[in-house]
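Predict the assembly for these two chains.
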Amino acid sequence: MKHSAAVDSLRRGRSRERLLKGLLGIASMSLALTYAVALAHLVLRGGAKLFSFTSYAYPLSDIEGEGLMRAVVAACLLGAVAWGASSIVRALLERTYGSSRRVDTVSQFFVASVAILGALLLRDRLPRFLVSFPSETTAGGGVGPEIFNTIYFAVLSTAVTLPVGVGAAVYLARFARSARFVSALRTALDTLASLPSIVYGLFGFLVFVVEMKAGYSLFAGAFVLSLLNLPLVVGITEESLRAVPRELEDASLALGATQVETVRHITLPYAWPGILSALVLSIGRVFAESAPLIMTAGTTVSRTNAYSLSPFRGGETLAVHLWYVNSSGLSPDKADVSAGTAAVLIALIALTNMLAARLALYGGALGSRLTKATR
Amino acid sequence: MQQVLVQPQEDTLQRRVRLAPRSRWPDVLVRLFVKACGGFVLLTTILLIGFLARTGLAGMGEVGIWSLLFGPRWKPESQLYGGLPLILGTFVSALGAAAMGATPAVLAAVWLTEFAPKPLRGFYRRLMEIAAAIPSVVYGWLALTHLVPVMGAFAHAIYGDDSNVGGEGLASSAVLLSVMIAPTVLLLSVDALSRVPYNLREASAALGASPWQTGFRVVMPYAWRGLLVAVFFGFARAAGETMAVQMVIGGARVIPANLFRPTTTISSQIVMDMQNARPGTPADDALFSMALILLIVSIAVVLVTRMLSRPVRA
């Protein structure tokens, strides 16, 4: 890039090109501005809905697990605030005193205690929108079960995607023997990657609802979502497995480790940040996807088992709720509910990304230590 | 989402790894497990295609492929299974989105890699990454509340007080899809453009070309495969998009007289009809046939993309 200044100075005179360049720049910036405005609108409008809450002291209903859910939401809310505050304070302290282990411990203790305190104190004074049930015809519905379902979906589908995706990637990157099997597997992954999400939904519908007569269930939805994510996870994981330096694996083998031991103790830890980023992308898709879930997990929330951990019940996620409210909801505060739902959804996606950045730091430590050792 | 499509070659490491001792029993188990994972992926893909093809072909047999492809009206209640409105809706809105969304995205990508001030680049990229991560339902909701009224006013300005025209229709869905795919296309195009070797830019400048000429006559032609892959990818995403389109397209199952009348697409019709579907009926099987058509088209698009993105051997 160091040459571009010299190149520029040669051609200052061409006014027409400068004009075109300026126009292109303005057009590109206005494109970006559109998205920035849309994002700001989402955050402000949804935030207004979230914080215009009326506190209420009594439980909304005697639903199983409702109290626990509220405690967890309160703990997360206050914990996140405490985390932000403590990381600012820690950064300031590190600037003046240098980093110390004690500051780390104290700040972790602080975050944990504030979270527990929040769970105890704030449990009954939460924004109503975050914990109450959706309402079909009257104003004032919330998204409590939807938040729970969205996160539960992420956990369930990761439970399938992580072992299968990483296993298949390890096979492709390190253990593959039969060329025919490998090329068949690659074709399969490419096909899966190309399918529109609605096709996955139809497949889930055929298998779980029609053939197995199991009705709408979280399990079916999570299975379909993990299928949807497999090509992504396998692709990124394989790429990061292939990027592991050869000398490390050679050294491990030379020390007498078997191939599997080498993969387990050297290759996988080294590739951990890549695997993690694949998982985060896939969780983002779980949060965002709605079409396959409508056909496999349904669009309703049952009052009796809204917070049950059983994967064999139906339930909608935030994204499905946002669609459902707008396409067939009758409540008068549709617009407010949609804004709040969108804001919660985006906050969840942002939070996942932040957490992953943190996890990548911890997991990547081994990788950097290995590099240092071999240098 | 692009994957590495290179066939793995046996290198020295793998040969050495193969010679490594492998007598301990966990090794056998782990080997079996990773192979089983590969087998699982393969098996589910075959099952997926098989299930859809079985039901979809049954539907084609019951209804007739001619009607599914060219019939003018979709009305399962009275045994009318004309798929043309659905197919037209899908293709017109996806093509419109590719034209309206991909052109600015590719141009902005050129601006970003060639002309933009450096401090701006990282920020711009970050913003577009966030925009690409916003769920499509959220885009759909934004379009429903903000785009549809504007398009409605626009339609009435063109067609006068015709009560049949309004904001819901192909025009709205094409604009919505173009807004949705632009960040993805832009990010993929930036990747393609930044893969162009810097030597080429220097050589072009040394021959006396201005940055503008270098950008549009050297860098863009060199990266055309990558740019085309980005546009195709955007098209495929637009054609497969379901919920957002369903919110703004109106849902009338006829061929619209103009771009501002309600119509439908394959995927949104599937979502609407599946909510009260009775498995095994011709109406249901015909839906699966439409899904099969969508599946075949998207696989074809990906095959073309793969052919284009295969590295050129110099």
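Chain A touches chain B through 107 residues (CB under 8 Å). The radius of gyration of chain A is 25 Å.
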